[in-house]
Amino acid sequence: MPVKKRAMRGKGKAAAINVGVPLVAKFGSELARKRFNDSFAERNLWPERGFAYMSSNTLGYPEYIYSVIFKNNWKNFCQHPSAAIVPLVREFYANFDVGNPNSVYVRGKRVDISGAAINNVYSLNDMEDEYIEFSKRVHENQLSEIVKEICVPGTEWIKSARGSRSLSRCNLKPGPLIWNHFLKSRLMPSTHDNTVNKDRVILLFAIVMGRKINVGDVINEQIGVCAGRQSGGLWFPSLITSLCLAQGVEISSEEEKLKATQPITMTVITRLLHDKPAIVTAENPNPVPEACPPEHSNRASFDAGSSFLQLEQRISQMEVMQYESLQMMRDFWKYERDKDLTLQKHFRSNSKRFQSFPKFPQHLCDSSAEDSEPERDVTPEAVSSSHSMDEAHDVPTTAPTTVRDKGKNTMAKSVDKKSILRSAANWKWKH
């Protein structure tokens, strides 16, 4: 946006006046202005994180990630978000009205933040939510079943003095562990890295079991929770920025933007899975993180379950490393392909003799083996039939020459350069 300048009286420098943000009231009431000055003017933003997709059938992630994304149509929702405007998000929360949680005044506009509007941003259907109903009527026996489903054997609920329940993050199985890392910034934010509260545990269970979750309704409720907090980071900054822009709220290109965060890549997943589990129980709420699970001589089933979990984690780690290696190989072959194209362009522009080049194995850069064309063995017949006769002028042939070998005159067959180049043009890797 343009910035006007005017000279200050008595000084030789010019003072910049930002006219990019429209001259409209930033706050819908004096109470909102006071809330901004008292609580939100200096608050940090809690950035969202998402997955960085690859162009493959699995999006470049293990089965327990991409299967949930495809089943729930969460591809847009789970993708790493765009940048957020810091002042805009702070003004949004200052103007939030508890009495009207589905609409917020922002710079002269009424921004719809209902569940339907949020779902529209992520291209989600406004479905009936099974998670919220289940979380309201869950009973004690179901809580035990939830722990068995998403945690390692031997895990128990930790009860606080006030009666609240939580689980240790280290006790989660690989799938719920990664989804918890996603949820705590994208759907149900939390600053607690070591523990997972009961509501988030139930949400993880709903994801693992394939229950329907209305993302818009959950986020709408969490925005209200964040607006009522007096301290801490402000949640959903990228989403709020997108909602405001969709309603025509004007912003300046010079406004502060939230620094980009690292997406949840294979490297991040590998690091999370490499953490050694530390079984947390009510009797041992603070175990050493690097310690192995405690021994239970009277519980052979625990040892078997623990060994199975370690095997599952090892397999997940191997799967992640395979994806990383595949991506590195594809990057290398794409570089080789681009380099070859550059060299070919140079040769073609400087010489008429070099017009045929080895065909690059394009399937090495494809996202999956199914997309690549089938390989075939190269035979002399295939070489001769793959080129038309009008290419004969590209490379001249050499006439036979006479050489003397041990006192005898022999006729040496000349090397057919054209045949060599054409053979190279059809050569492929053989498996």
Content of β-strand: 5-15%
Q: What string, H for helix and E for strand, traces the elements in order?
A: EEHHHHEEHHHEEHEHHHHHHEEH
Residue-averaged pLDDT, rounded? 76
Tell me the number of helical segments per DSSP (H or I, 4 or more residues long): 15
Number of E-state strands: 9
> Strands across the major sheet, in which order?
5-6-7
- State the shape: flat
Low-confidence stretches: 1-20, 276-302, 368-431
The radius of gyration is 32 Å
**Biggest sheet, open or closed, and with what strands and sense?**
3 strands, antiparallel
Distance between the termini: 58 Å
Global structural class = mainly alpha
Helix amount: 40-55%
- The tally of structural domains comes to 2
Topology:
Layout: E1 3-7, E2 14-18, H1 30-40, H2 63-72, H3 75-78, H4 86-95, E3 103-106, E4 109-112, H5 115-121, H6 131-137, H7 140-150, E5 158-159, E6 165-168, H8 174-186, E7 195-197, H9 198-209, H10 215-227, H11 237-246, H12 266-274, H13 300-350, H14 380-385, E8 401-405, E9 408-412, H15 417-425
Antiparallel strand pairs: 1-2, 3-4, 5-6, 6-7, 8-9
Helix pairs in contact: 1-4, 4-11, 5-10, 7-9, 8-9, 12-13
Overview of the molecule:
It is a single chain. The chain has 431 residues and is mainly alpha-helical. It folds into two domains: 26-314, no CATH class; 347-425, no CATH class. The protein is built from 15 helices and nine strands. Helix 5 packs across helix 10. Mean pLDDT is 76; it is low at 1-20, 276-302 and 368-431. Residues 71-249 form the Putative plant transposon protein domain.
